[in-house]
Amino acid sequence: xxxxxxxIADPAVFATVLRxxxxxxxxxxxxxxxxxxxxxxxxxxxxMLSGALIGVLVSAATANPFLGLFAALIGGGLLGALMAFxxxxxxxxxxxxxxxxxxxxxxxxxxxxxxxxGDKGMSGALKxxxxxxxxxxxxxxxxxxxxxxxxxHMLTYLAILAVPAVAIMLARTPFGLHIRAxxxxxxxxxxxxxxxxxxxxxxxxxxxVLGGAAGAYLSMGYVSWFAQNMTAxxxxxxxxxEVMGMGTAWGTFAAAAVLGIAxxxxxxxxxxxxxxxxxQMIPYIVPAVMLTVYAARRxxxxxxxx
Amino acid sequence: MxxxxxxxxxxxxxxxxxxxxxxxxxxVPLALSQPDPLEVLRLFVLGPFGTxxxxxxxxxxxxxxxMTGLAATIIxxxxxxxxxxxxxxxxxxxxxxxxxxxxxxxxxxxxxxAILIGALVGSLACIVxxxxxxxxxxxxxVNSLVLNFAFLFAGxxxxxxxxxxxxxxxxxxxxxxxxxxxxxxxxxTRLHTGVIIAFVACLLGGIWLYGTRSGLNVRIVGWSPGFAxxxxxxxxxxxxxxxxxxxxxxxxxxxxxxxxLYSRFSWTGLPGHGWTGITVAILARENPFLVIPAALFLAYxxxxxxxxxxxxxxxxxxxxxxxxxxxxxxxxxxxxxxxxFLRLIRDIKGxxxxxxxxx
Lengths: 306, 359
Prior knowledge:
Chain A is mostly helical. Helices cover 76% and strands 1% of the residues of chain A. Chain B has 15 helices and no strands.
């Protein structure tokens, strides 16, 4: 146990945990907002993938990584809005809409990459930008804490700042109240004059913006290129993180941290030639167990009351 | 009766129209970007019917998706959004390969044994999320989604540490012994006898769902759980039956795919036929009989896309876009639940219902 904590306190290991956690956290917060509004965003995987490609393409075209990030945010938001349009405008089921978006995004990003570079696998030929790391002034010089907390990727800081922001937004703003109202009881919300369609549109758009940020991090921070299907199921891990977080921003943060640590251990094991596949299972088994335990406890409670 | 058929045909015509428009909407902009737009359309639409071999390719591509489509249909009909079909397909293929590599079976029982074991092991990926839902009320959708990946990595571990042929270079299993195979049916394609199994399975599935008491009970549970409990049906048991049946079929599909197409097992990712199966089930309106044409249609698109990729340097991924768009279009309530359309269907059907009442 002590070994574990001293390993985590090692700046290099800590940085790796933050690196793998950042896209999960951004995407999971996006899933959280959509889930609380009653339209769980299954399409997160596809939104991340699209954001990753858009970031690379725009940053390569403009030679400006910030424009790339901006375009990824806009693109993600538009995809979220598109989902809302399909669900509430055309009346498709949200699960099917999400599955279709994932399918379409995998195809469209491969197609887009091919049209831009002539290659279907990777964007190596493009000179795409990388978003910078941020050195926090003053803090960087403090012993122990400095190397731990300073010098990380700008989207890592953004992801961590997004946790209290989303928590406050959901708990203390009128918009957050509307989201929770629509998510927990659409009929009562409608009776109170809250438009479900509008709230879900905003929620999915916001969810998509966060997904776009997660994607941009993958292709302009985690690595500096786009590869076919580079999200590799991270959108689904984000979904799982949100479920583990029991619908709260701080819970989602804790879950993303746990899953980030698990993935870091898996990466470390892989480099040491140990069976990493079993560690790779953890981010998928833990949420299933938590979800089941949570459901079982709720069921037991309901039985006691009746 | 004739009016019911007429109403069905009307809905089919609308579906066909919507799908045609969707294909054009995706394909026309792509075609215009090419030097010879008409050739793109011609190749995609008519190309797959060009030769016997290409039609064989359609059947070959439809073999796994007919079965995963049937599996998804049965699961959805029970009212569960269990997405474990993808995991079941993977596990079924792995287990069939493991049977072939590890068990000293020969002769005529070899292939059936591998398919049976594939079905049994594969069914786990549908049964586990189904059980957790029935027993504890945990969301089968989220559980199946994440557990698919857990089963994938468990399978890759098994492949890497038990089945791996160290002399094969890449990560793949030992060669499957010659007795573990399904006969090829058509020269120049990989079409194998599995396609017959798939056809028969869909027909049997349809007969079961519409022609037997337990099929009816499953439909009632899925259609209206409250009504089912009023009737005194054992809902939990019926739900589990549907998950088990779906899982077995999806696992069997994976086993048939591996035995029919490959000499080694080398899947290190989810093969995606489970997702396509879900699309097939939706396109077939969750009717096992219609699963056959739905799977054939998606396979036809796939072959058309492959032909574009081979002849014109247009990536075959275009098919993924078309499929996703079709999936959304055919489930859009705004089209198929549109008051005008419902009124039309009611007018076609309605008089018959009135006549029955009069008589």
